[in-house]
DNA sequence: AAGCGATGCAACCGCGTCTGC
DNA sequence: TGCAGACGCGGTTGCATCGCT
């Protein structure tokens, strides 16, 4: 049995939205809130399908959207999260307030892919291009401390509150493992020795030999931004590598 | 100035998942 | 428990704009 169309295509507009359509959509959502996308177009007096309205609102009209260029910091976050999650644009967008999955997806395909390729990094695998596929034991990898089964068990562990209600993460890790069997996705949850007084880190990257900063993970060991033990050693009290350089709370996956 | 390819981004499409009955 | 409708996501397309020749 075929899937029924999401809307009556014969009576809907397609293509670019007009100012009038935008205004109608904004006015309706301001008055009634988001949701019921299926019935929204008719109620709002729009000749659009619900999906189109939803997309327009989420990707363009939402008042909390951050317009404008991505910052270097956002670039790095996207790269890191993509190395972790793959093409899970909505999850990546969830870590970047004001950015949409569509925007990040477009930005990845137009800017970051090229940026990584210029650095000699395969954007799909985040490995150096021309790197041998086998024997990655000594290289830094994105590391988790548990397999997907263990991840689910961790849900009961209060210490790992970031994993609560996170079957999604298990699935992501699991699917990532399937997609990239050579990618180490063990989930490493270990408190930083220097930060025991602080809240538990939600997620740490742990290299096999040492914790790496973003720059080192990107193969930029001599970067002046390097803040790990592999690159320029800044001080004895180096903060190590807090995932993405973010505080633990920022990484609350479901915020 | 015109032609043309490259680029960037908004929007569409199809499928998987969720949810209510 | 199964089904159908609705929603959300990721991949892809189409078009406007830019920059080079």
In the predicted model, the low-confidence regions spanning at least 5 consecutive residues are 1-5, 134-255
Number of strands: 2
* Name given to the CATH architecture of the domain at 70-126: Orthogonal Bundle
Rg to the nearest angstrom?
Answer: 22 Å
CATH class of the domain at 70-126: Mainly Alpha
What share of the residues does DSSP label as strand, in percent?
under 5%
Q: Could you spell the SSE succession in H and E letters?
A: HHHHHHEEHHH
> End-to-end distance, in Å?
38 Å
| SS field, number of helical segments | 9
CATH topology group of the domain at 70-126 = Arc Repressor Mutant, subunit A
Strand sequence of the main sheet, in spatial order? Answer: 1-2
Shape: elongated
Average pLDDT works out at 61
What about the largest sheet?
2 strands, antiparallel
Percent of residues in helices comes to 25-40%
Structure class: mainly alpha
Specify the CATH homologous superfamily of the domain at 70-126.
Homeodomain-like
Keywords: DNA-binding, Nucleus, Repeat, Transcription, Transcription regulation
Pfam families: Myb_DNA-binding
Domain HTH myb-type: 9-61, 62-116
Main location: nucleus
């Amino acid at each position: 049995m075929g899937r029924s169309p999401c809307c009556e295509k014969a009576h809907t507009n397609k293509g670019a939205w007009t100012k009038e359509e935008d205004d109608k959509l904004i006015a309706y959502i301001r008055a009634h809130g988001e949701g019921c996308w299926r019935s929204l177009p008719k109620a709002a007096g729009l000749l659009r399908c619900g999906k189109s309205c939803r997309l327009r609102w989420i990707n363009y009209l939402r008042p909390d959207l951050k317009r404008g260029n991505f910052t270097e910091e956002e670039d790095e976050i996207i790269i890191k999260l993509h190395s972790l999650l793959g093409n899970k644009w909505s999850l990546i967008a969830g870590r970047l307030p004001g950015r949409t999955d569509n925007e990040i997806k477009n930005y990845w395909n137009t800017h970051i892919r090229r940026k990584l390729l210029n650095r000699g990094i395969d954007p799909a695998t985040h490995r150096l291009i021309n790197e041998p596929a086998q024997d990655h034991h000594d290289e830094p990898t994105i590391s988790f401390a548990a397999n997907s089964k263990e991840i689910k068990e961790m849900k009961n562990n209060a210490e790992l509150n970031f994993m609560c209600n996170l079957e999604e993460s298990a699935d992501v890790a699991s699917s990532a493992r399937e997609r990239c069997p050579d990618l180490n996705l063990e989930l490493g949850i270990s408190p930083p020795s220097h930060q025991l007084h602080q809240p538990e880190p939600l997620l740490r990257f742990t290299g096999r030999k040492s914790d790496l900063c973003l720059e080192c993970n990107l193969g930029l060991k001599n970067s002046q931004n390097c803040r790990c033990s592999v690159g320029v050693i800044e001080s004895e009290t180096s903060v190590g590598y807090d995932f993405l350089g973010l505080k633990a709370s920022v990484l609350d996956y479901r915020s």
